[in-house]
Amino acid sequence: MKRLLADLVDKDRLVHAPSSREDLQASLARAARALSDAAAPELDPTSRFDIAYTAAHGFALCALRAHELRPAPGARHRGLAFLTLVHTIDAPEAMASSLNGYHELRNRSDGGQRDDITDAEARAMLNLAVKLAKRLLDWLAERRPDLVPERPPAR
């Protein structure tokens, strides 16, 4: 386990949690459905942003689960899941930093400090979630093929 992840376990911010292929695949499927829903043009930008954010968070949790980890209860798990992506799936710092920035934007929006999300912010969150999904699936295929979702046979 990478040193930072081990340190977070030692500090009770992450906990060990056995993960099965079936559990991870179900979580990936939920995140993928949210990602698809976030692209619905009939939704307002705030809804699209929230749904894309939910998808990205789901993928980030899957990255932790691939290491048989999950955030500890009360550990401010959303931001933690994004910031650990550099260590779980070798995501670029810029990706983790951008996701954390959108996490902070979401918190400001939820806290009433911001009334609305712009269309550009919603599109950017969706694009980032799509990149995260690809990064995660590529990492799983290379490093944890035992967890990769089965693909239907080619016809």
Draw up the topology in text.
Blueprint lengths: L2 H8 L3 E3 L4 H18 L6 H21 L3 E3 L5 H7 L1 H4 L4 H18 L8 H25 L12
Antiparallel strand pairs: 1-2
CATH superfamily: Nucleotidyltransferases  domain 2
> Which topology does CATH recognise?
Four Helix Bundle (Hemerythrin (Met), subunit A)
Structural domains: how many: 1
**Helical element count?**
7
**Protein structure class:** mainly alpha
Order of helices and strands: HEHHEHHHH
Contiguous low-pLDDT stretches (5 residues minimum) are none
CATH level 1 name: Mainly Alpha
The 3D shape can be described as: globular
Strand content: under 5%
Your description of this structure?
The chain has helices at 3-10, 21-38, 45-65, 77-83, 85-88, 93-110, 119-143, and strands at residues 14-16, 69-71. With 155 residues, the protein is mainly α. The chain has one domain: Up-down Bundle (Four Helix Bundle (Hemerythrin (Met), subunit A)), CATH 1.20.120.330. A two-stranded antiparallel ribbon has the order 1-2. The termini are far apart. The model has no long low-confidence stretch (mean pLDDT 89).
